[in-house]
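From the shared-data thread, chain only:
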Amino acid sequence: MTVSEPAEEYLEGYAEILVAVCATRRRLTREEREALGSLGERAADAGIGLRAVVRAHLAAAQRVRPGLPPSVADHLLSAVEQAVDAFAEGHERAQHLAIRQEEAARREFIEDLLYGRSDLGRLAERAERFGLLLSHAHAVAVAQGPEPYGDGHTVFRTVESSLVARFGNRRILLTTKDGRLICVAPADEPEVLTHFAKQAYAATDGGRVALGRAHPGAGGVVHSYEEALNALDLADRMNLDEPVLRAADLLVYPVLARDRQAMADLVRTVLGPLREARGGAKPLLDTLTAYFDTGCVTAQAARALSLSVRAMTYRLDRIHRLTGADPGDPVQRYTLQTAVIGARLLDWPDQPL
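Structure, as tokens:
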């Protein structure tokens, strides 16, 4: 909304109402209040601020006062109070409606942006209204915590305040969806998403943040958003501990999971013999996981599992005898590690293949 008309033009009939009310010392009628409320709505729609119209009302009352009989002039203040209240009520009503409409338009835009359901050309036009230039490349970060967050949540406001204080009005979109915090930023300003990740992690009290890769165009935002969501899902399935996940660092996992049948065959063939061990496959699978996660350092893996080095070495030997693959051999290690990743992706042995 822009200011295109002076506030005085929204005082139509106001002076006459003041004179009539003071003459009979009555209160404003419902029709008079509704008329003033309608003027307030029109002023708000035209972008006239409430402060300006209140000053105009007071100035108009000053002009009316000399023409009133002394006996009724004292009632003028009460009449002005009632009139301004009615006008302000209409003004606020129009502003609240505009805010609701703006929020609805913003939410519709975000839904279309993150699902790619709208015409891309039209979406790009709408994006400029919300500070995005979709002709450029963007990246998306998604943060989730122990509870769902909405736009009015304290966590959202905390992160928003930090981003505004640090980056001002740069072309950044911060919103929420499905209880998660979402930040869309230009690809040439990676520090925005880095700062968002830091603040979101702190505000969510140890939540997790995933960063999608940068992609060009309106469809690129959807792609980056989906990458971030997939990274969060992958972290849950793989029990990854990192608080900040970058989709670019996890590309190997979707590749491995793309052919589920081939991965299931690999897990059955390589790790299936571990079921013959006392206690089943799970303890030995955990042993391999710890061994590979620690860079194949036996002592460090033993500490991670609260085992002695001797016990850890025994387990690795047992794995070698059962599977025929030596975890210490570089070539055979690759097959074992790939199978272990597959087991984690497929939730084996808890879930049958």
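The CA atoms of residues 41 and 94 lie 5 Å apart.
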